[in-house]
User: Which sequence fits this backbone?
């Protein structure tokens, strides 16, 4: 822990860049800044080789081949390409499948992508979740009785950390002849993911959720049997024509190195992070009786804790009273108001409780001392506010 620096417990918003990732990126800012598409000269070819090595590393993390990895600016772009691209290509081929199924707790970019397609003649179906945040497979099975083009279900929820049963969802989607996409921004690097075992056709990844740089991500697009997508915008035809534009070599190299580290150290990370989470929760529970953990406590990634504080203490006020700790509410903010999280509302949590809820994300570099001190600071802030009520 650095002196006079806040304790960072918001690793679901973004992770710090691993020092090994920074070291891998640096030469591509300074020594070789060539365009990786400039293969007519040596520097361009070296940059191209670095990009392809990184593509291999990302592919290995999810059990794919390098040819199935489309580099993007992040998971939001990957999700848009996957959902809109699949729908528009199918429509261009005269497919009569118009149903697109997703879940109420998905990231906004997935929900908005699906809803946008309603204006193009598609049928968005947004399924509810159970109180633990998990999708009811019976409801999905019923929804799939109508011919469906695409099912999109995230691997891990960004607010409550719940892991959806992707293998079972994939089996249902395939049996119904639908494509299966998953936003795995919060899952990659935090749990094992194999696109073949999970029967995934499309999968989205974000570099800055796996201790890599911001501004880079990827979309896995299955090649056998081949999944066809329509590109979102026109350009020079890079990335198999699906994502035109000059590739950012330093960011891609960093992304690849982050993926390489995650593939090797992911299980070790998860065990260590789970231990820090227990340190945090044990201290917080001792100091704040009546805490409630939202979402399944068993089907979740190790570092996530979504906590409702007792006594109706406003989460925004709680954060303001504990400025030494970096956490978040998961609320959707606008210039007009701060609204309770739509994810928590989907779990059936009352508005007053949703407003008293914090998301805590413990990561690779969280120490036991930081976990315990972070809990102590939040508990002290809660006690101060509770006395004022």
Assistant:
């Amino acid at each position: 822990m650095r002196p006079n620096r806040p304790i960072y417990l918001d690793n679901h918003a973004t992770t710090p860049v691993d020092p090994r990732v920074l070291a891998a990126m640096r030469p591509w800012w300074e020594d070789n800044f060539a365009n990786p598409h400039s293969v007519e000269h040596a520097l361009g070819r070296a940059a191209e080789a670095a990009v392809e090595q990184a593509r291999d590393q990302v592919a290995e993390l999810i059990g794919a081949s390098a040819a199935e990895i489309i580099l993007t600016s992040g998971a939001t772009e990957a999700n848009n390409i996957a959902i809109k691209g699949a729908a528009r290509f199918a429509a261009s081929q005269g497919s009569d499948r118009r149903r697109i199924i997703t879940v109420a707790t998905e990231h906004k970019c997935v929900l908005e992508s699906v809803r946008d397609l309603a204006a193009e003649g598609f049928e968005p179906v947004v399924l509810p979740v159970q109180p633990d945040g998990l999708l009811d497979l019976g409801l999905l099975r019923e929804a799939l009785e109508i011919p469906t083009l695409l099912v999109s279900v995230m691997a891990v929820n960004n607010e409550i950390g719940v892991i959806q049963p992707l293998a079972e969802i994939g089996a249902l989607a395939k049996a119904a002849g639908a494509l299966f996409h998953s936003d795995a921004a919060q899952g990659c690097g935090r749990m094992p993911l194999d696109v073949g075992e999970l029967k995934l056709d499309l999968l989205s990844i974000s570099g800055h959720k796996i201790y890599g740089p911001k501004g880079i991500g990827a979309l896995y697009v299955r090649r056998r049997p081949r999944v066809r997508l329509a590109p979102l915008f026109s350009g020079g035809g890079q990335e198999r024509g699906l994502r035109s534009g000059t590739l950012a070599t330093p960011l891609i190299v960093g992304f690849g190195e982050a993926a390489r580290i995650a593939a090797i150290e992911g299980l070790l990370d998860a065990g260590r992070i789970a231990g820090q989470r227990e340190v945090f929760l044990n201290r917080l529970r001792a100091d704040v009786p009546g805490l409630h953990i939202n979402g399944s406590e068993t089907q979740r990634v190790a570092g996530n804790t979504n906590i409702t504080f007792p006594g109706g203490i406003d989460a925004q006020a709680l954060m303001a009273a504990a400025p030494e700790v970096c956490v978040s509410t998961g609320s959707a903010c606008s210039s007009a108001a701060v609204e309770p999280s739509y994810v928590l509302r989907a779990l059936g949590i009352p508005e007053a409780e949703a407003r008293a809820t914090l998301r805590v994300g413990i990561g690779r570099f969280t120490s036991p001392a930081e976990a315990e001190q972070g809990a102590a600071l939040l508990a002290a802030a809660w006690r101060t506010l509770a006395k004022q009520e």
Remarks:
- Confidence is low (pLDDT under 50) at residues 332-336.
- The chain has two domains: 7-16+266-388, 19-261.
- The longest helix spans residues 249-287.
- The radius of gyration is 22 Å.
